[in-house]
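Pasting two entries for a bug report.
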Amino acid sequence: MESIQSIQFPLDSLTPDYFHGLELVTLGGKDYFTLLNDLTSTIYYYDFETRNLDRLLSFDTGDGGISRGVMSYYHIGEDSIFLFGKKLTSYMVDLEGNIIDKYNLLDLSIRQSTYSSSKNPALFLDNMIYYNSLIWGMYEKDYFPILRYSMEKRHVELSDPLPEVYFQDGDWGKLWYDYAYQALDSKNHRIIYSFPASNTLFVRESGDIGLKEIENSRIFDPILPPFESNQYVYDSDEWNMEMNNTPIFKSILIDYENEILLRAYLKPVNSSIRNAKRSISLVKYNLNSLELMEVLELPNNYYDFDNSFFKDSFLYIRILTQDEDFIEFEKFNF
């Protein structure tokens, strides 16, 4: 991988420097870098070429608006945006922010917390919305963290359990391994999943029921649970040391122009610091076959691959800095 340059987008005083949602979109023939301020339920549209803020799209919250605010978003075509809500209801809106439709994605009888970001978005496939939920520290075979919403029946259903790798002896630590990451492969009409504890990818093919493990995507040694049991003190030095010393797979990213998929792999680090910085490998797959192509290494450990995107076959990865006035990305050619 070759670093070419870094680019910056300015942040105003209302926008925190963490993001559940960012997206590169093309509207009216113009490329925009967009991000979500989830504190104010506002999407920021930046002209990608000039890096200047072009416009804001803010959503009213409360009665008559977006109840309790927006957790994440993504554009569907050039005329609508799906907003994943922070509570019961999610929304389809037009580019002016007018509500087109509502979806009650949280069924209170299913006692699981839903979550969404740009790297684990709610996705539409076969007249269903597929999305993620969790119960921290739940690693049982009858636990189904992936949910689906039937557009026809207008109700929530349990969809998929965790992969078998989660049912080893031991405990995964009630945090990083509980989340799943996914991306819509619109070229092949499927959803691709990355589970943090699994060294294989999984797919949901259009027309199929359930997830299929992709054996030829297997890489690295199997990951073992960091703890023998759940008898640990969460966020203690000992807990952080064990978690940091265990590798983890994270989000995936698709480049349609080169027909590749990247999957982030965080290497172990011997540290008891919370959220210790780790070296990151990027596992590169053929998008169509999901066969392994090569493993790339990021040059430093100050990147956040969860905030990344492709444009014109260049990879942009967020650089973690102390500057709260900008969000910065490094541009790579590979």
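Entry 2 (this is the one that rendered wrong in the viewer):
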Amino acid sequence: MDPVVDALNKLYHSKCGYCEAQIDIVASENVEHYRPKGTVNSLDLPAGVAHPGYYWLSNEWSNLLISCPKCNQPGHKGTRFPIHRHNRRVSTPPTLSAAGQVVVASNSHLLPPLSREDPLILNPEFKEPGEHLKVIDSGELKPVHRSIYGAKTIEVCGLNRPPLIAARKKIIDRIVVQIEKRIESFTADVEPLTEGQFRRELDTVFDEITDRLDYKSTFTLVARMIIKNFDTLVLSKIDPIFHPIIRNQFDRYIDN
């Protein structure tokens, strides 16, 4: 395996940096150039303006991530690279040496002029996706507080493709089903669980949520959203008579 691909796979645990799907299951990975090395898609440029691409960043480590082919294909991310203000787009290497070579240190996205571009697509290395994206109970992603970064990332990368929506919804639905199974045991006519046993059984369900916080897991954003919006995503689908005890045990679990 190419050492760059190998290193990126280890860093991203073979998950797509945009949609969090497991790449080695669905398809071979793509080494994604966050700032495209080829011509920037005209959709992200003023009319009549062309951009040759960020060719000088083609081997810059901070510009690379792993992406699944679906997110990275033409029609989705491809060579898209929208930024907040067109007049801040960098079109030539920031600094050249006397010999005409790119000064590698000037390629940093943390320093001008690249730091002034303000890209609109979320790169998980630069911005926390959970501050701009949220999961609703249908499994769809929505921007947080109308975040332009969240909205543009969903649009450009196609993060609400039906298989992704279904995968996220499946995680939420499983938690609901597992809680309902514990309720059935708690309310059984024969040998029902005691309250203490019921609470311990609930903890095993909550373990499933927190286990998914591990960065090796797919769709970690779903787990974070379940914890943050437990009432909306989970509790609202369960008989209200059990809300107090489930909510109380969930709070205990998270606090510990």
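Dev reply: Rendering is fixed now. As a check, the viewer should reflect this: The mean pLDDT is 94.
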